[in-house]
Amino acid sequence: MSDPIEPIEPISPERARAILEAAIRERLGEDWDDEQTGWVRVSGHDYMARLARGSVTLDFYVDLLGSVTVEKSTENTPGSSIRLALFILLALSLVIALLIVRIVSGG
Question: Quick check: pTM over 0.85?
């Protein structure tokens, strides 16, 4: 017969927060939250933190066993493309509106 599987004890939220803060300091330095470094905590809780600086985003995750995962991403290109498309659409709308006004006014 096999041995019974022991239940896994998850870490407490306080312990997860301490692990998370240590991982952030290890990756970004002690003064990561200093205004001059440019890093801003966008969101987070005891088991997760999202930090951003410019177009770079770092997501820190602590699982229930205390392991840390860091995911780095840059500004999402679909979001940038959508913004660019909307800006072009707005500019074209303004040009068309000006042309219509010019035609209607007889000039």
Answer: no
Burial class (CB in 10 A: 0-12, 13-18, 19+), 107: exposed
pLDDT in tens, 33-55: 888 888 999 999 999 999 998 88
Q: Is 62 exposed, middle or buried (0-12, 13-18, 19+ CB in 10 A)?
A: buried
What 15-23 contacts at long range (C-beta under 8 Å, 24+ apart), as own/partner pairs, is 15/66, 16/46, 16/47, 16/62, 16/66, 17/46, 19/62, 19/66, 19/68, 20/44, 20/46, 20/47, 20/48, 20/49, 20/60, 20/62, 20/68, 23/60, 23/62, 23/68, 23/70
The answer for residues whose C-beta is within 8 angstroms of residue 53's C-beta and 6 or more apart is 37, 38, 39, 40
The beta strand positions in 1-107, using DSSP E, are: 40-45, 48-53, 56-62, 68-74
* Mean of the per-residue pLDDT values of the chain: 88
